[in-house]
Structure formats: C-alpha cells, structure tokens
Specification:
Number of strands: 0
Strand content: under 5%
Number of domains: 1
Number of helices: 10
Radius of gyration: 18 Å
Helix content: over 70%
Distance between the termini: 25 Å
C-alpha cells in the first residue's frame, strides 16, 4: 500500500503541475480559443462523471452491499465540496479577449487575483486526495483521474496567471502563482497519507472512493460545466462530455479484458 500511496502522490503532483501549462499559456499570451477550452472542460467533466458513477460509487455500493450506505458517503463528498465552496469562493470567468488585455496595476484586480489563487489552491486539496485514493484502489483509476484533473487544471492555471500578470505587471509572477496553485494537490495527497493511511481497510477505502465520487461530480457540475458553457460554445462542450464518457467507457472495457 505504501508503494501505491507514493505513486498516488506522484500522480497528484503531475496533475497539479498542469496548472503551470496554463501559466505558460498566459505567459506567452497564446489564445487557445473558446471552442478548444469548451471542449477540454467538457471532456474533463465527462471523464469525471462517468468514472464517478460507473466505477467509484459502484465499488462502494458493492463493498457495502447497500445502495443507501454507498450513496451516503457519495453525498458526504458533495457536502464537503459544498462547504468549501461556501467558505472559499473560487469563481473565475473567461472572456474572448481575456488574453489580449494590457497589464495594468489596479488595487481591486490585485485583491481579485489573490482570492482566485487562494480559492483554486484550497479547491485543489480534495483533488489530491481523490488521486491518491483512486490510485490505492486501482492504479488505472488513479491514472485516469490524473488525466481528467490535469485537463481542467490548465484553464485554472490561466485563471490564476492572467490577473496576477495584470495586477503585478510581471509574467514570471503570473506563471509562479499558477504553478503554486497546483501544488496544493500533492499537498492534499500527502496530508491524507499522514492522517489516514495507517487506518486504511477495504471498507474505509470503499467509503473514501464514494466520497471521492461525490467530490468529482460536484467539481464537474459546479465548476467544469458552467465554465465550459461560459465561452458560448455549448455544442463543443457537449461534444467534449460525450467524447470523455465514451473514452472512459472504452478504457474501462479494455481493462476488464
């Protein structure tokens, strides 16, 4: 289990590191285009939704031999994310001209950039837990979650880097804060390991998988889908969701062979 935990921490680091890609996009002001971003966010949501219902929650229901108990842990995960959402907002919005703004110093923008960073940093902590729990249960699931989280972390990196660049007039600082916001994921994985790893049993692991499913579903419907739609390319968002679910279903089918 120690080996799986360490691999989970490594995967969470890789997922968190993808915010740096978003920071690089902001650093060079390359506009990936609204259609591309809509599809990527939708694809990530599709993967997370499918794996949450078809694999993670299902595992808990089978282990406990009870839909009720498995569902209770699932809703606990959603409740945890809802509580975090209330305490720490992480709202960010993209515009088509987002990458073309000139860097200007503005006190309100400085505060906004700090809040966006803190919000994303804190919201990434449970995703680190999700990655390491999924890896402990099944390495393939851990890799799948890593890819899905990494995909939606790229726009989050952009969301942190752009306002930081504008408020501090420094592209390097924008990239650094984008990188730092993603490092909360391995931090969440490590903290989880230090606290819970000695007490892990099959029942506790299944309960945690259901909690992770709740977290992933909440992130998908509260963050990924709304942001995916805000670009005004709903059809590309739906295409991304369907493709993500199809790829996820195909991957799980191949793993069963």
């Amino acid at each position: 289990m120690i080996e799986a935990f360490l691999l989970g921490v490594l995967l969470s680091f890789i997922a968190g590191l993808s915010t740096s890609i978003g920071g690089l996009v902001a650093f060079f002001y390359k506009d990936p285009g609204p259609k591309f971003l809509s599809m990527i966010m939708g694809l990530s949501a599709g993967v997370m939704l499918f794996v949450s219902f078809a694999e993670l929650l299902q595992d808990a229901i089978v282990t406990f031999d009870s839909i009720l108990i498995g569902s209770l842990f699932f809703f606990l995960g959603m409740g945890i994310m809802f509580a975090i959402d209330i305490m720490v907002s992480h709202r960010y919005h993209f515009q088509e001209d987002y990458f073309k703004k000139e860097c200007t110093i503005d006190e309100r923008l400085t505060k906004a950039s700090i809040f966006v960073f803190l919000g994303i940093f804190i919201h990434n902590l449970p995703e680190g837990l999700a990655t390491v729990v999924g890896t402990i249960d099944n390495i393939e699931i851990g890799v799948i979650l890593t890819i899905a989280i990494a995909l939606h972390n790229i726009p989050e990196g952009i969301a942190v880097a752009i306002p930081t660049c504008e408020s501090m007039q420094s592209k390097k600082k924008g990239f650094f804060w984008a990188f730092l916001s993603g490092m909360s994921e391995p931090l969440g994985a490590i903290v989880f390991g230090l606290i819970f790893l000695p007490f892990i049993t099959p029942l506790i692991l299944s309960a945690l998988l259901a909690v992770v499913a709740g977290i992933m579903v909440y992130v998908s419907i509260d963050e990924l889908l709304p942001v995916s739609h805000c670009f005004g390319n709903e059809k590309w968002s739906i295409i991304g969701i369907v493709v993500g679910m199809f790829v996820m279903a195909l991957s799980l089918a191949i793993l069963e062979v």
